[in-house]
Write a structure and sequence with these properties.
17% strand, 18 strands, 561 residues, Alpha-Beta Plaits, alpha+beta, six-stranded mixed sheet, Serine Threonine Protein Phosphatase 5, Tetratricopeptide repeat, Rossmann fold, 4 domains, globular
């Protein structure tokens, strides 16, 4: 049987470069190629996602996990070992869904084998693929063959057998082994055979290796992704009949990071297995990432909260995801650029300035981004067009600046849709609020969850004084670095980094707080590396994630939760 949506070869590559040991920059470029190709192929991967739950999010979760991890890697990571370690640590914190957590463990095993090596040679590359497979298998008590785990193992075996031992040759051999294993997945897993597809997670790993090789060779990934397949129509009809209906037929995908990690991980795993299935307990340093499919997410969260502090909490209704996955295609709504967007229960329009901020917003579920922010406030007409283009009659608008709130409210009144404007005052606050959004939930439920999140976040914006002003009776000259806390001038300092540190000091974060730091286009790699290290030295318990925001007028924007 020819499996649907199995990825094929993508053209003829140019003559490969010298197969030399990889520096940190080489490895970062390889991961960047993998991230771009995963993102481009996420819809094709999602389209065949039938195992362990047909919820259509495997590609989105893998792409989101790797993309968020790469965005937080500082330029200061210069050796291969530093890059691999930084990506792995960030992936654990940004992991999304079953496939994202398994990918984070694959990356963790890869980093384990690279260790502190300054360069990655062929022998270490082969060892890294092997250790990556082992870590991915170890994350599951009962690993299933015919999944991403099988593809990872066969990729590692092929990489070990490569007759040429340079890293490029090892990864090329691994890709060939992964492709062959992917074609065999329907023979190993009956649900794949019945649905007429290959494993979505395995497909995702093949895509990752394709992109990684393209990055190493200095190639651009193809403009067109792999052709999207689809499960057999009869299988989908049967799945709809078996799903049972009701809001929790498939239960809830429940995830969080637990800090500190309990000493008895098996005790935690056993307790989770009594509450649900698809349990993954993934330790890293002093914390552990938990993933479980459960009928009652409250019980899972209560269990975790009884053991330590919880961060990165996410609960997704898999029944609603399945219904979207299995539903016949709906007429698409155009976005602001004319592209098609799938219809959803609730949509978000966010006003943001900076490519990095916009990318994070999209990864968190925003449908439409309106360009704007400080000194570039969008008009009522621009926001109104975005609301009307949003793929739902129920829309939440995040203005993310005090000067945009009124225009957003006027646009909402003119839109003819059910629109709620949450008066978010900064990009950092808006993104923190957006993390509580779930597209399949009703408008009122989303608004309540996002308002609760808004109350729990403090925002910091580091910029320069636009004019001479006074702070606590002291004159602050035009152009001096300043920090605003929750939209109010709070700090003046000699440097942007100093203003950032002083603002965090004023807030006095508790030990279990999380800080997401978005750096602007004017911040050098050395500056943001120094800022991150100073924060880590001053607040070692603070969970810090650093992401390229791409904003112009703010050196840093930060959300402290």
């Amino acid at each position: 049987m020819t499996s649907r949506a199995a990825p094929g070869r993508t053209g003829q590559p140019p003559r490969p470069p010298q197969d030399h040991p990889l520096t940190g920059a080489d490895l970062l470029r390889a991961f960047a190629g993998a991230s771009v190709w995963l993102q481009r192929n996420a819809p094709a991967i999602d389209a065949i996602n039938v195992y362990p739950v047909p919820d259509g999010d495997t590609g989105a979760n893998m792409a989101g996990t790797l993309g968020a991890a790469l965005a937080s890697v500082l330029d200061g990571a210069v050796s291969a070992g530093e890059v691999a370690g930084a990506v792995a640590r960030a992936a654990l914190l940004s992991a999304r869904g079953n496939s994202g957590v398994i990918l984070s463990q694959w990356l963790g095993g890869f980093a384990d084998a690279v260790g502190s090596a300054s360069r990655l040679d062929g022998r270490t590359a082969a060892a890294a693929l092997t250790r990556a497979s082992e870590r991915a298998y170890a994350a599951l008590r009962e690993p299933a063959e015919g999944t991403i785990l099988t593809v990872a193992r066969e990729a590692a075996v092929a990489g070990q057998k490569s007759p040429a031992r340079g890293p490029l040759a090892v990864f090329a051999a691994a890709l060939a082994g992964a492709r062959e294993a992917l074609e065999r997945t329907p023979q190993m897993l009956s649900v794949l055979r019945e649905a007429g597809v290959v494993d979505a997670g395995g497909f995702g790993l093949v895509v990752l290796l394709e992109g990684l090789l393209a990055g190493l060779r200095g190639e651009d990934v193809p403009a067109q992704p792999h052709a999207a397949g689809a499960p057999d129509a009869a299988w989908l009809d049967a799945a709809r009949s078996d799903a049972g209906g009701g809001h929790s037929g498939f239960g809830y995908c429940t995830q969080f990071v637990l800090h500190p990690a309990p000493e008895a991980l098996e005790t935690l795993r056993a307790a989770l297995e009594r509450l649900g299935d698809s349990v993954i307990v993934a330790p890293a340093a002093d914390r552990v990432r938990v993933h479980v499919h459960a009928r009652d997410p409250g019980g899972v969260l209560s269990l975790g909260a009884g053991m330590g502090a919880l961060t990165q909490i996410a609960v997704e209704n898999m029944q609603a995801q399945f219904e979207r996955f299995a539903a016949p295609p709906a007429p698409p709504a155009p976005d602001a650029d004319g592209a098609a967007l799938p219809s959803q229960q609730t949509a978000v329009v966010a006003v943001l300035g900076g490519d990095g901020l916009a990318n994070v917003a999209r990864s968190l579920g925003a449908s439409i981004i309106v360009a704007g922010g400080a000194t570039a406030n969008p008009t009522v007409d621009e926001i109104l067009a975005a609301i009307r283009a949003a793929p739902s009659d129920n829309v939440i608008v995040l203005p993310n600046h005090k000067n945009v709130v009124l225009a957003a409210e006027q646009a909402a009144a003119l839109s003819g849709k059910q629109v709620v404007v949450l008066p978010t005052r900064s990009a950092a606050q808006g993104l923190a609020v957006l993390a509580a959004f779930q597209a399949e939930r009703p408008l009122a439920v989303n608004v309540e969850a996002m308002q609760t999140a808004q109350q729990a976040v403090r925002s910091i914006e580091v910029t320069r004084a636009a004019r001479t002003t006074k702070l606590h009776g002291v004159e602050v000259p035009r152009g001096q670095p300043i920090a605003l806390i929750d939209g109010r001038l709070a700090v003046a300092a000699a440097t942007p980094g100093g203003a950032l540190l002083a603002a965090i000091e004023q807030i006095a974060p508790p030990a279990d707080a999380a800080l997401t730091l978005y750096y602007g286009v004017g911040v050098s790699g050395r500056q943001r590396t120094a800022a991150a290290r100073q924060i880590g030295a001053r607040w070692p318990e603070l969970d810090v994630q650093t992401i390229a925001g791409g904003q112009v007028h703010y050196d840093y924007v930060a959300a402290l939760e």
